[in-house]
Specification:
single chain, mainly beta, 4-stranded antiparallel β-sheet, about 5% helix, elongated
């Protein structure tokens, strides 16, 4: 007769629900620098506001950041770190 690996009367611990980051539905944002970091040689202004987006395996898919141009408009920059054809950009304007 097969044996059960759980003890009688002890409920198995529930598995935590997987997040959209765990399943790969969404890439997880990883900020380059925490808020309040000072501009220094080691943390130049170019690194501020940049965010890596990682897939479910921890691979960085792209880097994104937003900055204001000389004309006052905001530009969203997306830098693919792999196959650029694997990334699509959608603008949601209401």
């Amino acid at each position: 007769m097969p044996q059960s690996h759980s003890e009688p009367g002890v409920a198995a611990e529930p598995r935590p629900a997987l997040s959209p980051y765990d399943t790969g539905v969404r890439c997880e944002p990883k900020s380059w620098l925490p808020y309040g970091t000072a501009v220094t040689e080691r943390t130049p202004v170019e690194n501020f506001g940049k965010v890596d987006f990682e897939d479910e395996e921890g691979n960085t898919v792209c880097v994104a950041y937003v900055e204001r141009g000389r004309d006052g408009r905001y530009t969203v920059h997306v830098e693919p770190l792999g196959d650029a054809d694997a990334i699509a950009v959608e603008l949601h304007a209401e």
